[in-house]
């Protein structure tokens, strides 16, 4: 059974929030389209870091991380590297990294090893930065570290507590606008228009939206999909740049295989460049 990533209330809220700025969402269709590219990103990260494909549970786990916690390809790869290092160090893969939490003690065969203090501090710091737009103060860090270590709190519970905090409710318009502007520039490559700024500010104030929520809504917008829809012409430009950067020449007819992979399989310029570096032509180049 496929789990819906966003509740219906969120979808309706996002649609209402963006409709006045000319960004009309179709959440189910947008989610289906973006989920496929997210899944491919997760699969490539697993293949590159762990040398295997993720199972369905791992796909769901990291897809949730991307949508709800605004994880990037780099975040996924860093987490997988921690898993790999933990496996090498402790001789099992059932600990912190493998379950995206402390390890499920209700499952036979899982140990009760908890994450390190450094792992917990990273979780808390990331939550503070996403929700309150700042690093945690020493008192807050100690309190949430105690909650996670002694009370078994998850990252989601830390985030929920921060969303309900008085500080979150008291964010100034300037702080909120700065957060929204940063999301617009990172996701859409532009400053927010007045209508979008006003609508997202209202979502932050009345519904407790975080910067991650704003980014998710922007990624589900027609503007984002149009900018990120790959065409054959765009794919050829990507491949041409990779050829020039790695081999110092224009692509030949044999490059069509890379064009198809960029166009159909969502390969990036880096993916093409990595493949070109494996070629005899690259290895035989004179220094």
Provide a descriptive summary of the structure in words.
- This protein is mainly alpha-helical.
- It has a domain at 232-283.
- It contains 17 helices and no strands.
- The longest helix is centred in the first third of the chain and has 24 residues, at 27-50.
- Apparent shape: globular
**Quaternary structure classification:** single chain
Kindly report the average pLDDT value. Answer: 77
Helix tally? 17
**What order do the helices and strands follow?**
HHHHHHHHHHHHHHHHH
Q: Brief description of this entry?
A:
The chain has 287 residues and is mainly α. 68% of the residues lie in helices and 0% in strands.
Set down the secondary structure blueprint.
Blueprint: H1 8-19, H2 27-50, H3 56-69, H4 73-90, H5 96-99, H6 117-131, H7 138-150, H8 155-163, H9 166-169, H10 173-187, H11 194-207, H12 211-219, H13 222-228, H14 232-246, H15 256-265, H16 269-276, H17 280-283
Helix pairs in contact: 2-3, 2-4, 6-7, 6-8, 10-11, 10-12, 14-15, 14-16
